[in-house]
């Protein structure tokens, strides 16, 4: 009986330690913008392919020198591959949709932009509000709805809000939603 308690206790300790170390291993990145810094914690356990894809672009410095090209107050700010003059950078093959990961498009979360399912590449957005309409639909058995959340802002939400308040009507794929004065992403880097 005593041995059984020790075994059960050991198993519980392993489960607890395994859970906490999995959470502790989530990668953090900093997005340096012309408006300030935004720190983002990536959720590798819930969106592994999406996080791996994002980190690939970070490692390649793909985002460095691009701009926030879409600002919709009360909804999202969006960035990824566009430069201040509206030109787009090349991207890798699209990734599978991971919207069925249990994460919701809440204020401060970061998610992948896409057109159709399985078309996300490098474009991402930060939610300015709880956007439940962007979540996977409950009746979706084929994983074809929703936008995959893969992290959350852990500091710098005031910077996100400052960006969300800039005047729009500039250049880019959404001219009526593009900042008039470009908001540059100077670089995104992994926090050691």
Write up this protein.
The protein is an alpha+beta fold and 192 residues long. The chain has one domain: Cyclophilin-like (Cyclophilin, Beta Barrel). The chain is built from 3 helices and 8 strands, in the order H-E-E-H-E-E-E-E-E-H-E. It has helices spanning 2-24, 48-59, 157-164; strands spanning 28-33, 36-42, 66-72, 76-79, 109-112, 124-127, 149-155, 183-190. An 8-stranded antiparallel beta barrel has the order 1-2-7-5-6-4-3-8. Strand 1 (28-33) and strand 2 (36-42) form a beta hairpin. The longest helix is centred in the N-terminal third of the chain and has 23 residues, at 2-24.
The CATH homologous superfamily name equals: Cyclophilin-like
* Extended strand count: 8
Q: Under CATH, the topology is which?
A: Cyclophilin
Q: Mind describing the biggest β-sheet?
A: 8 strands, antiparallel, barrel
Please supply descriptive tags for the structure shown above.
192 residues, alpha+beta, Cyclophilin, 8-stranded antiparallel barrel, 3 helices, 22% helix, disordered N terminus
What secondary-structure arrangement, pairings included, does this model have?
Elements: H1 2-24, E1 28-33, E2 36-42, H2 48-59, E3 66-72, E4 76-79, E5 109-112, E6 124-127, E7 149-155, H3 157-164, E8 183-190
Antiparallel strand pairs: 1-2, 1-8, 2-7, 3-4, 3-8, 4-6, 5-6, 5-7
Structure, briefly:
With 192 residues, the chain is of the alpha+beta class. It is built from 3 helices and 8 strands, in the order αββαβββββαβ. The termini are far apart.
């Amino acid at each position: 009986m005593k041995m059984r308690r020790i075994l059960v206790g050991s198993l519980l300790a392993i489960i607890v330690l395994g859970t906490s170390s999995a959470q502790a291993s989530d990668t953090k990145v900093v997005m340096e913008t012309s408006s300030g810094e935004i720190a983002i914690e990536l959720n590798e356990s819930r969106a592994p392919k999406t996080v791996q894809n994002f980190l690939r672009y970070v490692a390649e410095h793909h985002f460095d020198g691009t701009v926030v090209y879409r600002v919709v107050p009360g909804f999202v700010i969006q960035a990824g591959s566009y430069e201040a003059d509206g030109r787009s950078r090349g991207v890798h093959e699209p990734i599978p949709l991971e919207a069925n990961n249990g994460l919701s498009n809440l204020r401060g979360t970061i998610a992948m932009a896409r057109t159709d399912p399985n078309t996300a590449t490098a474009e991402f957005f930060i939610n300015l509000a709880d956007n439940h309409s962007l979540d996977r639909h409950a009746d979706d058995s084929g994983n074809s709805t929703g936008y995959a959340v893969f992290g959350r802002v852990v500091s710098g939400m005031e910077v996100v809000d400052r960006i969300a308040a800039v005047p729009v009507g500039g250049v880019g794929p959404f001219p009526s939603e593009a900042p008039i004065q470009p908001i540059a992403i100077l670089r995104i880097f992994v926090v050691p």
